[in-house]
UniProtKB/TrEMBL annotation:
The keyword Nucleotide-binding does not apply. Residues 129-148, 885-918 are annotated as: Disordered. Residues 590-889 form the pPIWI-RE RNaseH domain. Residues 909-918 have a biased composition (Polar residues). Keywords: Plasmid. It comes from Streptomyces glaucescens. It comes from the Bacteria. Pfam families: RNaseH_pPIWI_RE. This is pPIWI-RE RNaseH domain-containing protein. Residues 897-906 have a biased composition (Acidic residues).
Length: 918
């Protein structure tokens, strides 16, 4: 285990993040062919574009080239554009024969026919003649330069993966486990797949354990670091929707990983990879390195009960009956121990995160997480802060069971009393008269499934609600759609038709057009059966436990609907202020900025659209209205509304219109995308408007998602932290949000929030100093940590909030993976618990900013959920801004599909792009 520093710190975080040094990369060889290669590459691109026929500015699939190059060489290789010419980089020499064959066969696969053979032969000959030389290592990306193709980072990840592939992982009840290195840089436990129990048809599903090496967000320390994470990926039993195909031979040094392309319902292997691998497999000297892919994607290539030579990795959306997820925490601790004791280059190189003194989360003397619904006596004050006079809550119900359940929850939370009759069609007061509840049977089927449009449903709902709506009344509906939880579809077409006619989404938009927010109630699942499938009666004790669990889940979900009804109209109680404990509660506006690029949908049989993808941009602003015992005020902004409004009318205005914001009218500068330019302009307009449209002027702290916003604002990148904008920036708005404002009006700071563990590293616990001065390792921690220098004498405004999931808090039954890994488990149907974390990087924009207090406030607003009893993944302002987007009736139409997303960063169209950015 990592040895903590002998400092005054009481606790230090343990994290699967490891710094690297330039010497760790080893020797890098460059083959730079003669000048004609540029003309040949351009000709190949033109022929590929003509052959593919998409009408887009496409490039040949260089990821496929790198795949077969790495398989042939048995190590890392990269084909890239550098300093005005193409070059081949590799971590070990590649013979002239191998270079010639790989490039020739790959070019022929990219452009079939005589032209492909001619270009391939010429390219291959140039590469074969190129002399090896030492590669020039480029400097790290500088401020203002959004370079996402920095190859030293990719090679550093590969080097650590090589170290892990050489290790054997001991297990308690079998042979050691080894992970094989794949050409995509991941590690896969080939031959150690984890089976589930056979289903009713006798099919056995398998999980493939995989390890991923990522690049860490270095933050203010600006030292390159790597992260290690592990997942278990379902192996497909058919080719539908497969994202990646792995192919391995026993004597093969690398596993060939090929992405699939084509529509989800008709996947095919990446053609250049397949064609090149088949040709190279015919060469005796390479037959072990590059195995041939199968001629056809036949289901016979996938065995029913045990994986064969082909591993088809299913996308995340595929269900895993009888299989849990995750390795469990014990596996990550073994990873940590193996790297510290057996990987000399990386041992004891974890960055130092020390506990922040005086801030304990969750509950201690400095702050507590308030749970439960808003207390009855605090509801009037919360509604006052939200600007709500009277809240009308119509309960649009279909089944008696739901009606009874909602009635009981309202009686418990809003105080009408146990003898409340809840007369149908009569508005009755609750919560001291501030809430009116009316039960309305949806006899017209305004919420039901079917082909009825949103406009038709709106007419019916307007007639139903008309007798109860007044000018001073805000409407928040509780809705039930008539839905059969056991519905089964005979075909994919039937399922798609049912989803298109789902009544929830058009009725939700119809209510939004009536200025009403809405929450949809969960219907009861089928009753717990009295007998097994074989006809044997269940054990009564077991059945009683199942019945109680079913009812508890229904009651909990119903109670949560009432909480969401209040938070949906912007009503909060004292819980956010109380969570600050002894921390000062400043009268700041906390503004969350959410930007999302929409997915580009394609119509089968038609070429891909050339229209730029639209975006969604939403902002929420919240501040305390008084002291720590007072509620908070919440306002929101969207480009559709064009002004700041209280949270409820801003949300309904967004949900009543099209979610997409067209970006084609914007003009990008330099290397910006249209989406980045549009997002920067929208946010800048919102921040300018906040000076006059928010209820009270006050300093502001901004919260942005680093994973999506770093490609909009250059000042959020690691390379730019703590620096001034570089000279020649086209627009101040592209440096940081609010940067174009006068210096005295800029925000105090911007907090970059990162929740992706591939950029943070997996927490494994903490080291704690005992009373006698010694250190001991702890299994869990919920502390807030701050990044420090190696000697612990200086801290950075970078904080890490570690979280232990609810499964651990549930007790021993939820602690699967505490003392064993999934490799050693006899039961594969449990989910393995593991730590998660959120990282906050504070970027000051005002000399008056208190970075430590701002970072602590971000942690408090993450730890204390606005409605839930558990920790959120992001601070509340950012959480609410995201929720405005994700609760839109047609959010699903614009979001990235799990089936459409690649299993890894395996883009087949370009060698430069490593991520999808705005």
């Amino acid at each position: 285990m990592s040895r903590p520093l002998d400092s005054v710190a009481r606790k230090q975080a343990r994290l699967l993040q490891f710094r690297t040094a330039p010497a760790d990369l080893g020797e890098v060889i460059a083959y730079r062919p003669d000048a004609p290669v540029m003309d040949l590459a351009m000709e190949l691109s033109r022929e590929y574009k003509r052959n593919v026929g998409t009408g887009l500015d496409v490039q040949p699939p260089y990821r496929a080239l790198e795949c077969v190059l790495r398989a042939a060489a048995g190590t890392w290789a990269r084909w890239q554009w550098n300093d005005g010419c193409y070059e081949l980089l590799c971590a070990a020499p590649i013979s002239a024969e191998d270079r010639r064959d790989v490039f020739r066969y790959w070019a022929e696969a990219v452009v079939p026919g005589p032209d492909g053979r001619r270009i391939g032969e010429q390219l291959a000959e140039l590469l074969a003649r190129a002399e090896p030389r030492s590669a020039d290592r480029p400097p790290p990306p500088s401020a203002g330069k959004r370079s996402r193709g920095w190859w030293p980072g990719e090679l550093a990840r590969w080097r650590l993966a090589e170290e892990l592939a050489a290790l054997e992982w001991p297990r308690n009840d079998g042979a050691p486990v080894r992970f094989a290195l794949c050409t995509d840089g991941r590690l896969a436990a080939i031959g150690h797949e984890l089976p589930a129990e056979p289903d009713r048809k006798g099919t056995v599903r398998h999980l493939l354990p995989r390890i991923t090496i990522g690049t860490a967000a270095s933050g203010h320390s600006r030292r390159h670091a790597l992260t290690v994470n592990a997942t278990t990926t379902l192996l497909a039993t058919s080719w539908k929707g497969v994202a990646t195909v792995l192919l391995a031979n026993p004597d093969q040094p690398l596993v060939v990983a090929a992405a699939t392309d084509g529509p989800p319902w008709k996947r095919r292997l990446n053609v250049p990879v397949v064609a090149a691998s088949r040709r190279l497999a015919a060469l005796p000297r390479l037959s072990a390195n590059v195995p041939p892919f199968p001629e056809h994607l036949a289901d016979g290539a996938l065995a029913d009960t045990a994986p064969g030579p082909v591993w088809a990795v299913a996308p995340a959306s595929v269900r895993t009956p009888g299989l849990g997820r995750g390795h469990g925490m014990e596996f990550f601790r073994r990873l940590e121990q193996a790297i510290d004791t057996r990987c000399e280059k990386y041992s004891h190189r974890s960055p130092v995160f020390i506990e922040v003194p005086g801030i304990k989360v969750p509950p201690t003397e400095s702050g507590s997480r308030v749970s439960g619904p808003i207390p009855l006596e605090r509801i009037p004050t919360a509604l006052d802060a939200a600007g709500v006079g009277t809240l009308l809550v119509p309960v649009l119900w279909s089944t008696d069971e739901v009606r009874a359940r909602v009635k009981a929850a309202i009686a418990a939370q809003w105080g009408p009393g146990e003898d409340w009759k809840a007369v149908e069609g009569v508005a009755e007061p609750a919560a001291g008269g501030r809430i009116e509840v009316v039960f309305l049977h949806d006899k017209a089927g305004a919420l039901g499934h079917g082909p009825r449009t949103s406009a038709e449903r709106e007419r019916d709902l307007a007639q139903i609600l008309a007798p109860y709506i007044r000018e001073d009344t805000l409407v928040a509906a509780i809705c039930e759609t008539d839905w059969d939880p056991e519905r089964w579809y005979l075909s994919v077409e039937a399922r798609e038709k049912a989803e298109a006619e789902d009544g929830k989404w058009p009725s939700k938009q119809a209510l939004a057009r009536l200025a009403a927010t809405s929450q949809y109630i969960k219907q009861a699942p089928p009753p717990v059966p009295t007998h097994t499938r074989e006809g044997k009666p269940y054990n009564e004790k077991y059945r009683a436990k199942k019945v109680a669990s079913r009812q508890s889940g229904l009651d909990s979900s119903t109670a949560n609907v009432l909480r969401e009804i209040l938070s949906g109209v912007g009503a909060t109680d004292h819980r956010l202020g109380a969570a600050f404990g002894k921390l000062p509660l400043e009268n700041w506006w906390h503004i969350g900025i959410h930007v999302r690029r929409h997915a580009q949908r394609r119509t089968p049989g038609k070429r891909r659209t050339t229209e730029p993808a639209p975006i969604t941009a939403t902002l929420t602003a919240m501040r305390p209205t008084g002291g720590k015992d007072d509620p908070w005020q919440i306002w929101a902004y969207s480009p559709q509304a064009g002004r700041w409004q209280p949270h409820s009318p801003a949300t309904t205005a967004l949900h009543a219109t099209d979610l997409a914001w067209d970006v084609s009218g914007y003009r990008p500068a330099a290397d910006e995308t249209l989406q980045a330019r549009a997002a920067a302009d929208i946010v800048e307009q919102a921040l300018i408007a906040s000076r006059t449209q928010l209820p009270a002027p006050a300093p502001a702290v901004l919260y942005v998602d680093g994973d999506t916003a770093e490609y909009i604002w250059v000042g959020l990148t690691d390379e730019a932290l703590g620096q001034d904008p570089p000279p020649g920036m086209p627009r101040p708005a592209s440096w940081l949000p609010g940067h174009s404002l006068p210096r005295t009006q800029r925000p105090l700071a911007t907090v970059r929030v990162i929740g992706d563990l591939e950029r943070i590293g997996r927490p494994t616990g903490a080291h704690m100093r005992t009373s006698d001065g010694t250190w001991r390792a702890t299994d869990t921690t919920n502390s807030l940590f701050q990044l420090a220098t190696d000697d612990g004498t200086l801290t950075y405004p970078d904080l890490l909030l570690v979280n232990v999931p609810r499964t651990w808090a549930a007790g021993p039954s939820g602690r699967f993976g505490k003392d064993e890994t999934r490799f050693e488990s006899s039961s594969q149907n449990k989910n393995g618990y593991a730590h998660t974390a959120t990282r906050f990087t504070v970027i000051t924009q005002s000399p008056d900013a208190d970075c430590d207090l701002i970072g602590a406030a971000a942690a408090v607003l993450t730890n204390q959920g606005i409605t839930s009893d558990v920790r959120q993944s992001t601070p509340t302002p950012l959480h609410l801004a995201r929720r405005m987007d994700s609760t839109h009736p047609y959010y699903r139409r614009t979001a990235e599909s799990a089936e459409d997303a690649p299993d890894a960063a395996e883009d087949g169209n370009t060698a430069q792009a490593e991520t999808t950015s705005l």
